[in-house]
Design a protein that fits this description.
This protein has about 130 residues and is α+β, with helices and mostly antiparallel strands. The protein is built from 5 helices and 5 strands, in the order βββββααααα. The chain folds into 2 domains: about 40 residues, no CATH class; about 90 residues. It is about 50% helix and about 15% strand. The strands form 2 sheets. A 3-stranded antiparallel beta sheet has the order 3-2-5, with no helix packed on it. The N and C termini lie far apart (about 50 Å).
Length: about 130
Amino acid sequence: MTGLVIRLAPHERVLLNGAVIENGDRRTSLSIRTPNANVLRLRDAIHPEQANTPVKRTCYLAQLVLAGDSTAEDIRTPMLRAIEQLSQVFSDGDSRKILQRATENVLTRDYYQALKALRLLLPREARMFAAARP
């Protein structure tokens, strides 16, 4: 089986090319065969009011493309700028690799993979904010 396979829990919702799809009463798998389809699990989505940190705001930009609320062309420059700003803070080697991967994904218009990479920085960002609190 080629393409993206999504396993859904009962009543789980996913956004697929701007359309909300809700699973029924049983677990199921969907095989997305269309290349470059925009897919976002709604349980993983960051809501606008939750985009209150630099990493979350950058993830939210990617979500706008996946949800069909913005075009890749409109988001590309702001997202690359946001990733560059994150690279000023996340200076360790592993984080740099993640940011490089996210940059490459944005440049190739693969916003799903960019979001996936950036989400890896969320726990690190949370630790940084926790350490900065008195």
